[in-house]
UniProtKB/TrEMBL annotation:
Transmembrane segments: none annotated. Gene3D superfamilies: HIT-like. It comes from the Bacteria. It is an enzyme of class 3 (hydrolase). The active site is at H104. One of its GO terms (biological process) is nucleotide metabolic process. Its EC number is 3.6.1.17. One of its GO terms (molecular function) is bis(5'-nucleosyl)-tetraphosphatase (asymmetrical) activity. Residues 9-117 form the HIT domain. Keywords: Hydrolase. This is Histidine triad domain protein.
Length: 143
């Protein structure tokens, strides 16, 4: 586990220095319950390599670590038959509310009437075709 860092909470969990409620583990990833339990079954999946966030992933990292997303999501759904949906999210950087600077994916099971609201905003009224095209072109140029 030479790819881990000393002072990272999730690296400590991977090394077994901090206890966790592990639900899945293999050579690539570890998935464990988020202590906040936004809804029952709220799980985090972390790569067993210290990667700060998705901006630092290579294509190889993505293939190696993110392939487990469907498997973990389906295990949670099977464990809770009344799950009707799931938010699968990552907070990528401090401005996006990333607290632990080790890449992690949240699996938040959703139940009818659970009352959970993930806040977004709709700014469509501030954009026209020219502005959408300008933004799309800026991104396209980066590939």
């Amino acid at each position: 586990m030479e790819k881990l860092v000393e002072d990272c909470l999730f690296c400590k969990i991977i090394r077994g220095e901090v206890p966790s409620y592990t639900v899945f583990e293999n050579d690539d990833v570890k998935a464990f319950l988020d202590l906040s339990q936004v809804n029952p079954g709220h799980t985090l999946m972390v790569p067993k390599k210290h990667i700060v966030n998705l901006f630092d992933y290579t294509k190889e990292d993505a293939q190696q670590y993110l392939q487990y997303i469907p498997e973990i999501a389906n295990a949670i759904k099977k464990a809770f038959p009344n799950v009707t949906a799931m938010n699968i999210t990552t907070n990528n950087g401090k401005a996006a509310n990333q607290v632990v600077m080790h890449s992690h994916i949240h699996f938040i099971p959703r139940f009818e009437g659970d009352g959970l609201k993930l806040m977004t905003r709709n700014n469509a009224d501030k954009y026209d075709e020219a502005k959408y095209n300008e933004i799309a072109e800026k991104i396209k140029e980066q590939f």
